[in-house]
Amino acid sequence: MLNFATISVLVLSGLGQADRDAASQAAQRKAWLNIFAQQAIDYRLSPAARPKEKFKMLPNPIFRHSAPSRGSDDLGAVWLWVYQDGRPAVSGTIFGWSAGGGYREVTHEFHSLAPEPITGTWHQAPQWRPGKPGIVCKPIPGAPTPAESQRKRRVQVRQLVGRFQAHSINPQGSRWQLRLIPRPVYSYHLPDGSNTLGGALFLFCQDTNTDVILSIEARRVDKAYRWCYGCASF
After folding, report:
1. Distance (Å, rounded) from C-alpha 168 to C-alpha 134?
2. Is a pLDDT exceeding 60 seen at residue 90?
3. What is the arithmetic mean of pLDDT over 3-30?
4. Residue 82 contacts by C-beta under 8 Å, 6 or more apart in sequence?
5. What proportions of the chain, in percent to the nearest 5, are helix, strand and coil?
6. What is d(CA 77, CA 75) in angstroms, rounded to the nearest whole number?
7. Phi, psi of 76, deg, nearest 5
8. CA–CA separation, 139 vs 131, rounded Å?
9. How much of the chain exceeds pLDDT 90, in percent?
10. Which has more pLDDT, 15 or 90?
11. CA distances from 193 to 73, 90, 131, 148, 223 (A)
12. N or C: which end of the chain has fewer CB within 10 A?
């Protein structure tokens, strides 16, 4: 099974032409983001081996996006589900664009960030059961030993992310360099003695449209902590 999933639905905008003309762009964006949030809340995501252990959805999206350079009016947001200790488990973006006739097509696109198989339902119906970990983390070559304090580790993460680059290639073979959002969209810290001391998530985008999620984490490797990375694509 794939470690990512995409669902598309068609939603009636419910706004007449006069209403659309009168409403501000900011108000329309807020209304649609509220709709997307309600759809995200309807997901139940859990470890496959422990289905009663529900991942916790963060109350606010970790990022909002659009894609003007692609010639569309895409609008959406990225949500994050985490383990009870705060480790990232699932990222999901819900976005929509005009489909004509007063409708917007809305797409749900998810990627597992968990180190184990997970299961997902929407409206209580099974939708997703990837049979392998969402990302595979590898040691960062030449990275320093993770610092003992959280503050110093945060500084190390900011320095390490500058080593990474990402690009996309369209169906015609053209290459598009993706832009790193230098500020982490999510950070977490765990107590000493855990398999991971914590880490952060970063995004690579085209405009503000998320294409790559980068995880940098201080995790135990061969009885010692090392800085590791893993990538997931939208």
Report:
1. 20
2. yes
3. 59
4. 55, 56, 58, 88, 89, 188
5. 15, 50, 35
6. 7
7. -170, -175
8. 23
9. 53
10. 90
11. 47, 24, 28, 12, 11
12. N
The rounded radius of gyration (Å) of the Cα atoms in the chain is 19
- Residue 145 tokens, joined: 């030993």
DSSP label at residue 116:
S
The residues facing 106 across adjacent strands are 9, 96
Beta carbons of 55 and 90 less than 8 angstroms apart: yes
Contacts (Cβ under 8 Å, ≥6 apart) of 121: 43, 44, 127, 128
User: Within a 13 Å sphere around the CA of 31, how many CA atoms are in the beta-carbon half?
Assistant: 14
Quote the CA–CA distance of 102 and 14 in Å, as a whole number.
7
DSSP string, 16-60: -HHHHHHS-HHHHHHHHHHHHHHHHHTEEEEETT-TTSPPEEPSS
- Whether residue 108 is predicted with pLDDT greater than 50 in this model: the reply is yes
Unique residue bearing structure tokens 């809340």: 41
Report the first-to-last Cα separation within the chain, whole angstroms.
Answer: 16
Q: What is the pLDDT of residue 2?
A: 52
Q: 179 forms bridges with which residues in the sheet?
A: 205
CA-based max dimension of the chain: 65
User: What's the pTM?
Assistant: 0.85
Q: What is the pLDDT of residue 33?
A: 87
Answer for the pair 3, 111: CB distance below 8 angstroms, yes or no. yes
